[in-house]
């Protein structure tokens, strides 16, 4: 799962202080919860190491951290990335659960 340092790299933050660390950490925790809500809280169990999970968390983190500073073009691009990743992960998680004999 994505950590604060990886999130800061994704956000382009090369210098941070206590406030930046706190804000990135909050945005990241929110993003992880959002990903679990959108995809499923067991996604890392059934799709371990899938890089799309981290990509989605980073997208959510950026939306949370930079939300008011994003241009309409940037918002649209992030929305398109989410629209590509979310259904893929949802369907693959469902298939992995079924293959494992779990709930669907």
Textual characterization of the structure:
The structure is a single chain. The protein is mainly alpha-helical and 104 residues long. Helix 2 (18-38) crosses helix 4. The radius of gyration is 15 Å and the shape is globular. The mean pLDDT is 95. 74% of the residues lie in helices and 0% in strands. The relative contact order is 0.15.
Straight-line distance between termini: 23 Å
Q: What is the number of E strands?
A: 0
Give the proportion of residues in helices: over 70%
Report the mean per-residue pLDDT as an integer.
Answer: 95
- β-strand percent reads under 5%
Name the shape in a single word: globular
Largest sheet: none
Give the C-alpha Rg.
Answer: 15 Å
Helix and strand sequence: HHHHH
Low-confidence stretches: none
What's the tally of helices? 5
Derived structural class: mainly alpha
Summarize the entry for a quick read.
This protein has helices spanning 4-11, 18-38, 43-46, 51-66, 72-99. With 104 residues, it is mainly alpha-helical. α2 packs across α4 (51-66).
